[in-house]
Amino acid sequence: MKMSTYILSLLLLCSASAAATGGGDELYMPREIRRAYERGTRSMSGAPGDRYWQNGADYDLRVRVNPGTRLCSGEASITYRNNSPDTLRRLVLTLHQNMNRRGAARLSALGDRAVTEGMRIGALRVDGTERGFLPDAGEARIDGANCVVTMPAPLPPGGETEITVTWD
Question: Which of 47, 98, 137, 144 is the most buried (most CB within 10 A)?
Answer without folding.
Answer: 98
